[in-house]
Write a structure and sequence with these properties.
single chain, 167 residues, four-stranded antiparallel sheet, mainly beta, 3 helices, 9 strands, five-stranded antiparallel sheet
């Protein structure tokens, strides 16, 4: 096991400004994953288990309750997916391997998702929104990165490859 997943990330300034302590990846909601043969990479879209203690002032009056981000894994190998993306939260665990590699394992109700990858993660597309009664992440949202904030006011469709495939 690694000490904390954020220690593996290349960009945490955005998260560090939002949280006093960045939450662990326990009971996160896995929304989607995108596989790309270039790299090869896996980009996941997850909801963190807790809302930030220090949201930006522009988010204060929005009544949002969820923080979502993309985690991108590089040099992916040995990918195995069994089951489906569950409606219930999942846990993400990392184990260090030789040669600056990681074993990433996602486990939850009916899901086994694992792969090996580089020991360096990328974080992007950090956004805030209010979860609907059905648990959906549709609707208005606010993005932390200025470019995302200019381009999107809600979650873009899956055809938007610049959003789902790139950080």
């Amino acid at each position: 096991m690694t000490s904390h997943w954020a220690d593996l990330a290349m960009y945490t300034r955005g998260l560090e400004s939002l949280y006093s302590v960045i939450p662990p990846l326990r009971s996160v909601r896995l929304r989607s994953f995108h596989l790309d043969w270039r790299g090869p990479t896996v980009t996941t879209r997850i909801d963190l288990p807790s809302y930030p203690e220090h949201p930006p002032p522009a988010w204060s009056d929005l009544d949002h309750d969820t923080l979502q981000l993309h985690l991108q894994f590089l040099a992916v190998d040995d990918l195995a997916v069994h089951g489906r993306i569950p409606r219930t939260p999942v846990d993400i665990n990392f184990s260090a391997l030789a040669d600056r590699r990681l074993f990433a394992q996602w486990s939850g109700d009916g899901l086994e998702f694992s792969f090996t990858c580089s020991d360096s993660l990328a974080i992007g597309h950090i956004s805030s929104f209010r979860t609907t009664e059905s648990g959906s992440d549709d609707g208005a949202r606010s993005f932390l990165q200025p470019l995302d904030a200019r381009r999107f006011s809600s979650l873009p469709g899956t055809h938007e490859s610049t959003f789902y495939g790139h950080l």
